[in-house]
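protien #1 (seq + structre)
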Amino acid sequence: MKLTIVAVTTLSLMGLNAAHANSIPHEQNPGYVWDTNGNVVRDGFGGCVRTINWSMDTAIARCEGIEEVKEVAKSKPVVPVAPAKPAPEPAPIVLPEKSVINYKFDNANFDQRTGVSGDLDAIVEFAKANPNATVVISGHTCTMGSRAYNEALAKNRANAVQAHLVFRGVPAKQIESKGYAFDKPVASNDTEQGREKNRRAEVEVKK
């Protein structure tokens, strides 16, 4: 009789240990017996103890050996992404008909302080952006001095402007320069005011 009690006691302890090791915390529903710790009570074989209110609607998957069905996370609705706005196109370069650099008497050094009319900067930027464009530079003088002197002076004035454009980034192969001496005046050489206008270099773009 004593041996039987020991065996039953041992079996009961094993069942309790198994129950503790495999405790199932769950919201208390009427289909199972719950202990004070909020776990389903196990029988001696490790099964969950049901009540008379048990049904498939109250069944706990782990108690019944049923695979738990995990709720599939609802995917967030895809918010359409608005296409990026294209970058605004740069404003077109407005070219002047020509740019004129005025020179002092007997001088061929390019110096913008001597006077530049027309947008020379626009010509530079247009030439750099358009490799097929050609920049044409012409040098001119007044009638004071010999032809040979004025031909050399006119050429030097055109060359000075060309060197300035190359320094600004215009490829030399895009530039044509020529000196005309006093053959193409824009004003009368009979007055000092007219001669001042004729001492010049002209820059224009041939597209």
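ok now protien #2
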Amino acid sequence: MLTMSASAARRAALAAQGFTDRRPAATPTRRHVLAAVRRTGLLQLDSVSVAVRAHYMPVFSRIGGYDRALLDAAAWRDTAAKPRALVEYWAHEAALIPVDDWPLLRWRMRRYAGGRWEGERRVLERNPTLGRDILDAITEVGAATAGDVERHLSISSERGGPWWGRSDTKVICEQLFASGQLSVDRRVAFARHYDLADRVLPTHVVAVDVDESDAIRELVRRAARSLGVATAADLRDYHRLSAAQGRAAIADLVDEGTLIPVAVRGWDEAAYRHVDARTPRRATGTALLSPFDPLVFFRPRTERIFGFRYRIEIYTPAAQRVHGYYVFPFLRDGELVARVDLKADRAADALRVPGAFVEDGHHPGEVAEALAIELRSMATWLGLSDVAVGDRGDLAATLAARL
């Protein structure tokens, strides 16, 4: 079996995710945006917007300041000149994925036909005809929010659903989305406008029905390409596959030569390297990473590769938080060297840094100097004039001085 050092595995992972590529010399274009998404294979969606929506940040982390309207158009606009390139579905979590990957998740749509969760199934049971009514309404009126559907059907919007006070109509719209009957045509103020899947997606995509085992194998192949070097758990987690699904697919991909078993020194688990994975001699450059960036969203992998224990503290009471509400790891020259709590304060026209913390073994002055540049770049990208540093954390004072 091949062996590789933990440092080489880390560099291979960074290269696979696009962090060793040179950033565009000029203003990034749609082509650059979509190339970055092809590297990751998906962009996780999340409702938290305290700094910036989660799906925008991974692209910025890889190519720098781009026009977010380019990503919006790729996902939520479809024209003859520029067809929709990305579509929403449940991949890692709710995510944007390449349109051509949608058929690879039909097996999941079939499993969700009766509901994703027990609460959703209960709503379906007490509303046996509402799904058909919703489909008929959307067929008639076109892309619509759950609220639009309720108004069209003259349904009360009383919150009777089990999820965060959602109405039954919203719950069943989500179920129809999960089962592949509806898709998302566009978002307005981040609210989904559902439409029939065969009106959102190209006919040739909707017509494809991939066998489940073939689809799982292809998803693991894509995950391996995006991860570079990975354990079986890493490969499964990328698209939230079961252990049995992952085991069979990995065995097939090893047999065909796509995955090469490797032993990574210092890793407790067996690993696999994608046959095309590159291992640069060095990893340079800086990037702020969203909590939902594919480089770090599987926390066991983050700790294994970077020695960086990372937990999101959004749901932790404020007094019990260690690092802050919405904390971004800071990548510098191939290592995670700091973490910063960030908030976009539009009223004050500033990117606020309530807390900044340096990792053990890294020079605070050098980290602060590099971090200051990246924070200024992020503020400019978000249309904010200033960066304001608070007083929490052992890096705060040094960072404030650099800014």
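The first strand starts at residue 2 and ends at 4.
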